[in-house]
Amino acid sequence: MALTQVSSNKCAGGFQKVFEHESTELKCKMKFAVYLPPKAETDKCPVMYWLSGLTCTEQNFITKAGSQLAAAEHGIIIVAPDTSPRGCNIEGEDENWDFGTGAGFYVNATQDPWKTNYRMYAYVTEELPKLINANFPTDPDRMSVSGHSMGGHGALICALKNPGKYKAVSAFAPICNPMQCPWGQKAFAGYLGSDRSTWEAYDATVLAASYSGPQLNILIDQGQDDQFLSASQLLPDNLIAVCSEKKIPVVFRLQPGYDHSYFFMYSFMNDHIKHHAKYLNA
């Protein structure tokens, strides 16, 4: 599992780096970003995994979200993978911005021609953590997950499908109920096939309804002026209803005036990293 360093920049007293490796799950070269806080020079640190949204690479989060100062302050390593396999030469992979390249939806595809490469769920929950723990000064028992939009969906399902694995979870404008929205329906039909019962394994609202495990403390921020909220792509009310019924603690904050962009995430990133630090550094 050799890593090739692509870039390294001193940032907030630590280092923002990007690495490339050959992924066994995705059968292609993958890049991921890792922020190493100053504390990582002397101690093992917890890891927060960040899952990005549609069309993103590992670059968007590290250049726009403003996470590094808070990560340095709280001694947290942040790992930000890409959002899909790249350059697999699958017919149609580059035709749509919301399916294929840049749109892996954090599922393990079961349908041809996607099933060989499009295994982002296995990549972010299994292969990548093993790779990170083998190569960086991490405490493998202290990990958490966060993300935006498609990546918020990813963060929620990773936490709900793996009780106890992640100490905390948060999301910005997550796709909360993909089975019921156009983005999710398109992606799930393509990657998982027409049998909708197979989609339930990757829908946070469905998973929350059957969750049994250690208490999950969920923080969700949602911009009130988000065009995808009004277009019924995100459906947070469905998830919140189930969580309140199941007594899963959710802090849901509707932020007036904010949209779906990184300007919104930048504005509340410190709160999210503080939320993660509370559970990671406990």
TrEMBL record:
GO terms for cellular component: cytosol. NCBIfam families: fghA_ester_D (TIGR02821). GO terms for biological process: formaldehyde catabolic process. It is found in: Cytoplasm. It catalyses: S-formylglutathione + H2O = formate + glutathione + H(+). Keywords: Cytoplasm, Hydrolase, Serine esterase. The gene is ESD. The active site is at 149 (charge relay system), 226 (charge relay system), 260 (charge relay system). Serine hydrolase involved in the detoxification of formaldehyde. InterPro entries: AB_hydrolase_fold (IPR029058), Esterase-like (IPR000801), S-formylglutathione_hydrol (IPR014186). Its EC number is 3.1.2.12. Belongs to the esterase D family. It comes from the Eukaryota. Pfam families: Esterase. It comes from Amphiprion ocellaris (Clown anemonefish). One of its GO terms (molecular function) is S-formylglutathione hydrolase activity. SUPFAM superfamilies: alpha/beta-Hydrolases (SSF53474). This is S-formylglutathione hydrolase.
